[in-house]
Amino acid sequence: MNDTIIYIIIGLVAISLGYLFRQLQLNALHKREGEKAERIIAEAKETAREVEVEAKNTSIQIRETAEDEIKRRRQDLSNEDDRLQRRRSEIDSQVDRLEKREQTLNKRQSTLDRKSNEVDDKQGEVLERLQQISTMTNDEAREVLLKEVEKEARSDMARIMRQIEAEAREDGEERARRLISLAIQRVASEHVSEITTSRVTLPSDEMKGRIIGRNGRNIRSFEQAAGVDVIVDDTPETVTISCFDPVRREIAKRTLQKLVNDGRIHPASIEKTLKKEGREVDKVMLEAGEQAVFDAGVPTLHREVIKVLGRLKFRTSYGQNQLDHAVETSKIASVIAAELGADVELAKMGGLLHDIGKAMDHDLEGTHAGIGGEFVARYGVPKKVVNAIESHHHEVEQETIEAVIVESADAISGARPGARRESIDQYIKRVKSLEEIANSFKGVNESFALQAGREVRIIVRPDDLDDLETTRLARDVAKQIEETMQYPGQIKVTVVRETRSIDYAK
Questions:
Q1: Tens digit of pLDDT for each residue in 29-67?
Q2: Is the pTM of this model over 0.85?
Q3: Does residue 172 have a pLDDT over 50?
Q4: Which domain CATH number covers 330?
Q5: Shared domain check, 291 and 208
Q6: Which of 42, 236, 265, 448 has the most beta carbons within 10 angstroms of its beta carbon?
């Protein structure tokens, strides 16, 4: 029995242990399943979290893309709106222009209609006149008609010319300073005929023999030493000295006068007197140059420049002394420069030195403008002045307004009445040429050359030309003079048309 109880107890214990073991297994299984479930839940949460983040990023990206697209669309719409606005403005402007053009065309059409009516009326009158003249042939009638049409066309042309001139005079002062520097230019002709002789008066014709000497010894020595030609001709009590160099000619003239006064003429005295007079002439040239610089108000010049400038005292052009011409040009240039607001000092210096090359052009090759510019450049003269000297005959390009002023002042000085002298034959020829040109035009009654040929006054027949045609005649005569004649400065053409109506009160 006790064994049975033991067995029963053992069985109960075994059963309890089995139950406990089973419970432990179940608990371990539940725990593993719980952990697995938690792990799955955690993984699911993580996956959900990643999906949520990805969804958020995707949504943000989609939103940004959408916003960019909206901005682009808005910008496109704005650009399109601007383009439409510009297009609308352009269309409005075109409409305005078309309206103005239409108005202009309407006015022109009205003018054309009026002109057409006038032409028709005029043509009707002409045809009526032609019909009245039954004796006129077809060719004669055609000629009369063409003359009437030509007269009408010339009248219109003259009226248009006057209108254009009136419009040109109405330009404002904005362009005046630039235009005046061009308007005052004068194109002076380059003179090739210079005075190359000097005359020495003798006490008697016997002195000619002493000047010549035995077998021509004295005159050959004189010509060789002085570098001149001595002309002994039939002119009573006069000997002529010929030379292109005015300084050598002046020295030779002074020397011959001293020898004649002294009476002792032989090779030794000739050489001695030439050297002495050469020094005297050098002194005279220096003094003349200094006086010219003082008169012109240009003090800052090198002594060599002043000395060479003084050589112009013995140089003339058409009777005009070149040194006086240089001083006068300098003063005129200073006045013009002051009026235009240019550099007065540069203009004065350029005017004074513009012809300095003429003092050396017999010794050097080239034009006097180029020689003068190259010479003064060696002695520190400003480049603008050098350009004014070199360009006053347009041999180089004018770079400054002062160069234009110097050219204009040069022409004004040479063209003023009385500045230059012509021979009587040349003067008469020029005056006759002016009158012949004026008289060659239709409708001219008579013409007169005035002011030493610087003005031609034309009197026309009032029945042949009207007031408008006189304007065309003045322009045609001036153009003909420009094309056929050479002259310094300018020539004024004046056309006079006079009509008188006379009646009597009874």
A1: 777 777 787 888 888 888 878 888 888 888 888 888 888
A2: no
A3: no
A4: 1.10.3210.10
A5: yes
A6: 265
